[in-house]
Amino acid sequence: MTTARDVPEYERDLLTQLTLRWGKRVAVKKDELDLDGHFDAALPDFPEHLVPVLHLPGADRLDREARGRILSAAWISYNAKTAAVEDEIILPACRLMLQDRIPVRRDDIAVDALHQTIIDEHYHILMCHNAVGVTRRRRDLADLRFAPGVWSVVQGRDAVRAGLSGFDRDIVDIAFSLAAETTISGFLSALATAQDIQPMNRITTDLHRRDESGHAVVFRELCGSLYRNLDAAQRRMFREALVTGLAAFRAADLDPWVTVAAQGGLEIGTGELREWAASRPVPARDTGPLRLLLDDLGIDHGLVEMVRR
């Protein structure tokens, strides 16, 4: 019987296992999905229970067509946020960790894992773009757009790194990317498992979610190697940025929801949404991968618990 001790060390390495299986497990290596073929015009594009504006006063008076337009707009918004996280938060951090000045693990396997992640993330952006393109065309929402800077996580990252430069700014960017890649699977799971929505939307989200489970391992390994190479002050900055990043990912995106509501003729203000969000429990997010890293680095789980308060 073969034991772990009999297996060469490089084969026991998590990044080695991921990079060797990359061609068989990721969405970019699979056949293109027939998006129009998986589009069912009779089904909603987004789960109603995930749309806060439909729980506000006045929403109960909307007719079916108006509610449908809001759900379609919510799907477009969801993809715009997903693409912004990939493009504004994760991809810049991947490119940072390829630079010699960032003290992360940099053997051939680590470099392979980063380049594979970069390819995956660009493909995820394309998946979002293509799926939303079908929705805009089939639901007559061609003009609905969201700028990358409207999302709470992008705004939070920008606020933390304001006034910073050099390596301090790099630490913040990488900490925010760790918050993204170790919790995004939970963000995607609500749609990936929704059986009562548009098949096209569920399938594309599930393909993305499956890739992200591997990315959580990549970022856990590489950010762990970075953290071990930081001094005490830099480690404190990293932990504080990570907490802020986790909180920003859980924060309500008020302005985009106002725009979504308007597509169905529902006029609301950010104040109404903020009040509603404050009265609701913060959505749960799977922090399992992050907890594994905290254990590995000897950091108390209280770091995660701080975000729940």
Can you describe what's shown?
With 309 residues, the chain is mainly alpha-helical. The protein has a single domain, classed as Orthogonal Bundle (Ribonucleotide Reductase, subunit A), CATH 1.10.620.20. Helices cover 65% and strands 0% of the residues. The protein contains 13 helices and no strands. Helix 2 packs parallel to helix 4 (108-139), helix 2 packs antiparallel against helix 8 (199-228) and helix 5 (152-161) runs antiparallel to helix 9. The longest helix has 34 residues, at 64-97. The protein is globular and about 60 Å long.
Q: What descriptors fit this protein?
A:
mainly alpha, Ribonucleotide Reductase, subunit A, 13 helices, globular
Give a brief rundown of this model.
By secondary structure, the protein is an all-alpha fold. The protein has helices spanning 9-12, 14-25, 64-97, 108-139, 152-161, 166-181, 184-192, 199-228, 232-250, 254-262, 270-278, 288-297, 302-308. It is globular and about 60 Å long.
Q: What is the strand and helix layout of this fold?
A:
Blueprint: H1 9-12, H2 14-25, H3 64-97, H4 108-139, H5 152-161, H6 166-181, H7 184-192, H8 199-228, H9 232-250, H10 254-262, H11 270-278, H12 288-297, H13 302-308
